[in-house]
Amino acid sequence: MVYSPMGKPITVRTSCSKGEVFRGWWFDPRMGEARPLGDGFRDDLLTFQPPSQGEDCDWVLVLDSAAEKFPAPGTERYEEGRN
Fold first, then answer.
1. φ, ψ at 11 (rounded to 5°)
2. Residue 14: pLDDT over 90
């Protein structure tokens, strides 16, 4: 996770992260909602532009290993076998 307090672009070096393919989301801490970026990110150096910039436009970039199949940030994780 990387926080951008004013919506400035974020560059991430993935060579230090677990996983070969990444899935991403922008999480809006003001609304508590996640916006999918998709998956298939593979480069060692990735740059992401938040959906908005400026004062009161903070965003959290969330990158996970696509193989882990984590749910979107801010949602409950599905537990197999539970209703």
1. -115, 130
2. no
